[in-house]
Prior knowledge:
The protein is α+β, with helices and mostly antiparallel strands and 125 residues long.
Amino acid sequence: MAEPVQEPEQMQPVTSWTPDGETAPRVSEEAVIGAICTVYDPEIPVNIYELGLIYAVEIAENGNVKVEMTLTAPGCPSAQELPEMVKHAIAQIDGVADIEVDTVWDPPWDQSRMSEEARLSLNMF
């Protein structure tokens, strides 16, 4: 008789105990990118990470996260809301302390920064 297949247990974040108390799990780049992938430009049905709008993600040991992003155009109507949406998405990750989202214009965004998945979604092949 075959043994029943057991469902994998949910991965629990690992914390560390220090004399100052328990510390939060280290924030991973994968978690930050996953959070950013939940943010979509209101005018384009592709997440901003796949669009190539994220230029850099830096995560400090203390949980501070810094993101450099751009927009598809300087006059983008979502110029104010997209960085705030990114900040809000990252804030949902356990262990994140402070979040800084900087909008940069150099290098300028162009369609070559889009992932293959984004190109296929937008029929740009």
